[in-house]
Amino acid sequence: xxxxxxxxxxxxxxxxxxxxxxxxxxxxxxxxxxxxxxxxxxxxxxxxxxxxxxxxxxxxxxxxxxxxxxxxxxxxxxxxxxxxxxxxxxxxxxxxxxxxxxxxxxxxxxxxxxxxxxxxxxxxxxxxxxxxxxxxxxxxxxxxxxxxxxxxxxxxxxxxxxxxxxxxxxxxxxxxxxxxxxxxxxxxxxxxxxxxxxxxxxxxxxxxxxxxxxxxxxxxxxxxxxxxxxxxxxxxxxxxxxxxxxxxxxxxxxxxxxx
Length: 259
Known about the structure:
- There is one protein chain.
- The protein has one domain.
- β7 and β8 form a beta hairpin.
- The protein is built from five helices and ten strands, in the order ααββββαββββααββ.
- α1 (5-28) runs antiparallel to α2, α1 (5-28) packs across α3 (97-144) and α2 (36-49) runs parallel beside α3 (97-144).
- The protein is elongated and about 125 Å long.
- With 259 residues, the chain is α+β, with helices and mostly antiparallel strands.
- The chain starts with a helix and ends in a 13-residue tail after the last strand.
- It has helices at 5-28, 36-49, 97-144, 190-202, 215-222; strands at residues 56-57, 68-75, 78-84, 88-95, 156-159, 163-169, 172-177, 180-185, 235-237, 244-246.
């Protein structure tokens, strides 16, 4: 499960507060947490600087022709911004797997060397906070420089014609193409917002599993079809009085003559 980006901000700030509290406890025990004190402060500042996420944007962006925009998705260990266009989708890389892992590992080892296990905990949390802040900065840069539809280093482009099937399963976007299946992790709550728009963008290539359909859509797709049969009635005219009667009638209902 991937946390909602709004929850990530809160977690980062709370992590910094918790580290400062632990560092203060160490200080009361006559142990100075040289690494943990400044790292806890940095984590709190970074958490406060991370702005509220945009989430799933489904209104067409006139500047980029984007039909839907996701501010965060995870493929492998890399973080991407996903842009759905009329004929293709683009994954803009915000943080590589190397950056994500190395930032956490290096700061954790530095903290372990200076403050022991508490420092390692502070370094790991600090590396994660730095990565999230860098991710937001890259996301803003893409929007500011209008580079959402251009490919840069580490970006991926997938034409819709190369896709056989697209599904949403819990918090994953499944893309089945000619070269296999790609599983993209989504933050909690994103899938339910994406489902109606994916149907409009991809048409028959989007296969709904029914988990994110509205009640109206579910009723329309599960209600059995009925066929209405309309019978055609042929009328004959009486040769004596001119009245009309259904074909097969033996006597005229008006004059009683044999038809």
